[in-house]
Design goal:
The protein has 416 residues and is an alpha/beta fold. It has 17 helices and 11 strands. Helix content is 46%, strand content 12%. The longest helix is centred in the first third of the chain and has 26 residues.
Length: 416
């Protein structure tokens, strides 16, 4: 019997070697997802939601969705003015400022940020919310709140959460601390979207990560093909760069100055929704009912519940974008695409609905929008990071002052 030609044997060996290499890489990346390049994570929803958050733990059955792993820690230089932080590098032209600072945190025994370990048996204030419950600046409003009020604070917020996860966090971890105050931060930029995402996952019976993987085919669940595709795009972009759409930065005009900023496209899309569209969504019904339910549970044990409305900078700055080119670029991101008058008519709707909801149900309500807007327009101050969508150091100081003032109105003079 003739043996196979040497070229065929070499081809088979080479093919098997490639397959073995790819399999080894796939296994390696699954065992050490922290080695997946950040750019690849940003380029693929599957990687971003199912593999790149190696610092998360997922609950089943789903109540919170996810938390940081206990004892997880991060320390490194971080620049909130870098457009890449919100995937806007490809749409931003010209140099960006360098606002780098040393960013470090360590999670407690339960996976939350900003709390000493072990927890106290009782806390004066329990706070929950999305990423605005954390700090993305050298100053953190919760630290200032502790200092200004002299009260103990337990942070039960988490990046990417929305109202339903936040309510569950207080139920699981906060109510047994018998707080005098429970603060829930409602963020208009994506909370309703987050509620819908949460509900779909909970109804599926799967945990947060498994749900994401179920939405794609078997091949799409592999890590290596995403990395190969990402590498190919990077090489193509290097050899033949696509022309940039210079959407950012946009110029904001206040009464006393002008300053550039970068927006997060997802928030513009969410703020496009009209009152009728919001009312028709089950997310609004689910979120508002969850807020009422938690208020009832807090007040039943003698505490006070405060709903804090957090505006997106895209909302605050919209009326101060005056250059025609910037207005056009902004409206291109609305979903569905809105005219200037349509978006202007819609942008306040969610806030006004929440004001009406709070008044109708006699909810204690603190709307941060007015102070942030007036101080920006009249004083020309910036309270949000240049690129990252969260409050800068000045914003953290202002928010701490506003919440301290509200609590002082009820509790009387506070220690400082």
């Amino acid at each position: 019997m003739r043996s196979k030609p040497s070229w065929m044997r070499c081809g088979i060996i080479s093919l098997l070697s490639v397959v073995a290499l790819l399999a080894a890489l796939e296994i390696g990346f699954r065992l050490m997802p922290q080695t997946i390049p950040l750019g690849a994570c940003r380029s693929s929803l599957t990687l971003a939601h199912a593999f790149c958050h190696y610092e998360y733990q997922y609950d089943q059955p789903l109540r919170l969705g996810y938390l940081f792993k206990p004892g997880y820690q991060f320390a490194g230089d971080w620049n909130p003015a870098d457009p890449a932080q919100i995937n806007q590098a490809d749409q931003t032209c010209g140099p960006s400022p360098d606002h780098t600072f040393r960013y470090a945190f360590r999670t407690d025994d339960h996976g939350f940020v900003g709390n000493a370990t072990p927890w106290q048996d009782q806390y004066d204030i329990v706070i929950t919310g999305d990423s605005f419950s954390r700090s993305f600046a050298p100053v953190w409003w919760q630290d200032l709140l502790r200092e200004q009020t002299g009260l103990s604070v337990l942070n039960l917020g988490m990046d990417g959460w929305a109202t339903l996860s936040e309510v569950e966090a207080v139920r699981q971890y906060g109510l047994d601390k018998h707080p005098r105050w429970v603060l829930l931060l409602y963020f208009e930029g994506n909370d309703l979207f987050g509620v819908e995402e949460y509900q779909r996952r909970r109804e599926s019976g799967l945990d947060w990560r498994s749900y994401q993987l179920q939405q794609v085919g078997s091949f799409e669940r592999l890590i290596v093909p995403h990395l190969i595709g990402y590498a190919g795009q990077e090489i193509k972009q290097f050899l033949q760069p696509d022309p940039k759409v210079c959407r950012y930065p946009m110029t904001i005009a206040t009464n006393v100055n002008r300053f550039p900023t970068i927006f997060y496209n997802v928030h513009i899309s969410q703020l496009s929704a009209s009152r009728d569209e919001i009312v028709a969504s089950r997310a609004w019904t689910l979120a508002t009912q969850a807020i009422l339910d938690l208020r009832a549970e807090v007040t039943a044990q003698g505490g006070r519940f405060l709903l804090v409305y957090v505006p997106a900078k895209e909302h605050l700055y919209w009326s101060r974008i005056w250059e025609e080119r910037d207005i056009g670029h902004f409206l291109e991101i609305t979903t569905p695409m809105r005219s200037y008058y349509q978006f202007s008519n819609n942008v306040d709707d969610q806030m006004l609905m929440m004001i009406e909801f709070a008044a109708a149900n006699r909810l204690e309500f603190l709307n941060l929008t007015e102070d942030l807007w007036w101080r920006t327009v009249v004083d020309g101050r910036e309270y949000y990071n240049y690129a990252d969508m969260h409050w800068n150091a000045e914003g953290n100081r202002l928010v701490a002052d506003l919440i301290t003032r509200y609590i002082a109105q009820i509790d009387g003079p506070l220690s400082r």
